[in-house]
Design brief:
Blueprint (H helix, E strand, L loop, with lengths): L21 H17 L3 E3 L1 E3 L2 E3 L4 E6 L2 E10 L3 H20 L2 H17 L1 H12 L3 H24 L4 E3 L10 E3 L5 E5 L7 H12 L3 E5 L5 H14 L6 E3 L6 H8 L5 E6 L1 H12 L7 E5 L13 H12 L16
Parallel strand pairs: 1-5, 8-9, 8-11, 9-10, 11-12
Antiparallel strand pairs: 2-3, 4-5, 6-7
Length: 333
């Protein structure tokens, strides 16, 4: 087929979840399943300062839709590992923050493009690890790349956020400059394991900050793949660090460590409020970006089509109730 008449690639987002080109999408996902499954069962390290770091202790990761499927063993990091990651991020910050924003944009766009290149593999892995439907997984992966690309676009549209301001006279110069803040901890949830990791991390990185990233203990594998993609894209050592661990040790150290300048957290309401309260006790509060769990209310008016309304409400709350014809065919062999 000529380039002019070529069929555009499948693009699934949360705005197009009706799923045009479903046959092509399912074919690509089915083709990616064997390679993803072939990598199951391995033992995986942390990534600190650009290097794989092995640990003595590990925790198992199994699929939620069939716990007999062992996805792998993941490093159970210690407080010392987290401190090493924070120190690596702090050491990398001066050089990365001085890197021209155009170069940072180039590198982060490369990350976004690599996510798109690996979207079928990443979607399959997310399906096995998070138990999401096929369309949800593809949408999550696409959103991850789109969020990073959006932050890159904003840097370009705003010329790195260095803007002249009004003056009181011809001999005066006022300029507004966006400056990097420091080391950010990004703690992502299990339900959007890539979008809510790649998005916040991408925004922090393109602005010149460095990151220590901890995924949810239920979804460490997709987080590891993000770390590997960052490395493949050429993000300098120490700029993006990846730590995992169960039992709260790793997450607590990230929250408590004075070397962390800001926190992005998506998770439970209780932990979110703990972060806010702890921040209030700090001599200088640090910036927090927090999203916690909840259910949005839905009001159904008497004039509504009840069949459509109930269908829309349950799909919004429980996306997994879709049928194979709407994009939720199985992930198994």
């Amino acid at each position: 087929m000529s380039a002019q008449g070529a069929k555009p690639p499948v693009k699934i987002t949360y705005a197009t979840m009706s799923g045009d080109q479903l046959e092509e999408l399912h074919g690509a996902l089915d083709a990616a399943i064997p390679a993803v499954q072939a990598a199951f069962g391995q033992t995986h390290p942390l990534w600190i300062n650009g290097h794989a770091v092995k640990t003595v202790d590990h925790f198992p990761n199994t699929s939620p839709f069939d716990t007999r499927i062992a996805l792998g063993q993941f490093a159970k990091g210690s407080q010392l590992h987290v401190r090493d990651a924070i120190n690596a991020a702090r050491a990398a910050f001066p050089s990365w923050s001085r890197t021209p924003w155009q170069e940072r944009v180039k590198l982060l766009n490369r990350v976004a493009n690599l996510i798109r290149e690996h979207r079928w593999e990443l979607s399959v892995l997310m399906g096995f690890e998070a138990g999401k439907t096929r369309l949800e997984c593809v949408g999550d992966v696409e959103e991850s790349a789109d969020l990073i690309a959006y932050y890159c676009d904003q840097m370009e549209l705003n010329d790195g956020f260095t803007k002249p301001m009004n003056t009181l006279g011809p001999d005066e110069e006022n300029v507004s400059v966006l400056r990097p803040y420091g080391v950010w901890a990004v703690i992502s949830p299990f339900n959007f394991p890539l979008a809510l990791a790649a998005g916040p991390a991408g925004g922090a990185l393109v602005a010149g900050n460095t990151v220590v990233f901890k995924p949810a203990s239920d979804t460490p594998y997709i987080g590891l793949r993000l770390a590997e993609i960052m490395n493949e894209a050429g993000i300098p050592h120490g700029v993006f660090n990846f730590v995992t661990g169960g039992g709260g040790t790793v997450g607590q150290e990230l929250i408590d460590n004075p070397g962390v300048d800001g926190v992005v957290f998506t998770g439970s309401r209780d932990i979110g409020f703990q972060l806010v309260k702890a921040d209030a006790d700090r001599p200088i509060p640090r910036p927090l970006v927090i999203e916690t769990g909840g259910k949005n209310p839905a009001i159904i008016m008497p004039s509504a089509d009840l069949d459509k309304a109930t269908d829309g409400v349950y799909r919004s709350a429980f996306g997994g109730l879709a049928t194979p014809s709407t994009g939720a065919s199985t992930w198994g062999p």
